[in-house]
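I had to read the description of the data format several times before I understood it. For illustration, here is how one protein appears when written out as sequence plus structure tokens:
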Amino acid sequence: MKITKYAQSCGLVETKQGKRILVDPGDYEFDEKLLDTDWINIDYIFVTHKHGDHCYTEIINKIIERDGAKLYTTQEVKESTPELTPEIVKEGDVIDLGEGLKAEVTKAVHGWIPLFKGGNKFPEENVGYIIDDGDKRAYFTGDTIAFDNDYQCDVIFLPVCGHGLMMGPWEGAMFAKMTEASIVIPCHADAPKHPVNWDYVKSEFDSVEVEYKKLVIGESVEI
């Protein structure tokens, strides 16, 4: 399994079955060149929730039209972006993609802050995904605060920006440790309005004795 990181929480998973799965392609730092160089021959797109930095509707539809990719996301995303025509999933579902490839739809709890007052932007429905190719498991937590679970994986994408919206470095490190992931990839760290102090990230991960890989946009790891 090969995983490539893009801006915010976006990742491209290439499985042993030869499938290419794009998770949370958002509008933040999007470069049109990605459609010609990286986000090509996409088989599946998974979206965790309705925020634009995870769900760039126009680009998702371009990929679907070009590649015939199949989109999976929540009912709330469908209702908030009616121009999308996804397969609807919810927490606890298992998506059978054939040839031993599956995706487990996990719980995710997006944090609330006063800026969401009125519910106009707050996602009421939020999920994560564990992509399992039969050998390796890649867990994309989505934007979530920490919660009790028994999820297990080999690599985990998890947010570290905190700000009341999702996990910060300390609880993120503990959350990753629970999953027994051998590779931890911090994400949701690219937006200037939610700055991340990487020295602080390192100190907090070190305090929990969890190692992580800080990937730049376009950098990959293989597991």
User: Anything to note?
Assistant: Helices lie at 34-37, 57-67, 75-80, 169-179, 198-208.
